[in-house]
Amino acid sequence: MSKRLGLMLALAMVSRPGLAQQLVWQSDLQVRALTLSESAGHLVARVSLTTELGEAATARVEVLLPVGVGILTLGPGCVAGPSPPGVPSLRARVICTAGNLRPRQVREFEVTTTLPPAGKEGRFGAMAVSDTPDPRPGNNFAERVLASSRSNRSGPPERPTQPWSVP
Question: Burial of 161 by CB count in 10 Å (0-12 exposed, 13-18 middle, 19+ buried)?
């Protein structure tokens, strides 16, 4: 019986390539959105994760912080990354744990920071990873810039810097 079942499964995968892709352990985890806003003298970054094509095991996102900002609040599931010895207020990233994500499930995280120093722009990045192989890792990263009102930059206050950054 097992040989017959194996042969039927092999024939099904050859005749329908989409089925073969679904039977391989994988998940297309992606940063669905990274949005920034400035409110009451703070920067707020919101990251939205989703997965297509399979369940993402132990999914997490690392939010890369702008130079010179301090963390004010972290949403549920988020912790501050390590700091250099002797300077506990300096952080380069925040790690947010999503757990296992089912197909098309969405998880959102929020990080609030101080404004960057004068003349520096608020450049955030978000990188999603999981313990499941990802067939399309190119959509696991997004980057956004919010020019601080204290900077001398002109132009729109928010702009995507990657084509897959969705406002």
Answer: exposed
Contacts with 106 (C-beta within 8 Å, 6 or more apart), sequence order: 32, 48, 49, 50
Q: Which pair of structure tokens corresponds to residue 124?
A: 């955030």
Task: Report the alpha-carbon distance of residue 88 to residue 74 in Å, rounded.
Answer: 16
pTM of the predicted model, to two decimals? Answer: 0.73
Q: Which residue has the tokens 């005749």?
A: 15
Q: Which residue has the tokens 């952080």?
A: 91
pLDDT tens for residues 11-35? 555 555 554 455 688 999 999 999 9
Place of tokens 């002109």: 154
Tokens of 96: 């947010």
CA within 13 Å, CB half, 46: 10
Residue type at position 103: P
Residue 143 · residue 165 · CB < 8 Å:
yes
Q: Over the Cα atoms of the chain, what is R_g?
A: 20
- Torsion sign (Cα): 73, 80, 121, 49: negative
The per-residue pLDDT for range 55-72, each reduced to its tens digit, is 999 999 999 999 989 999
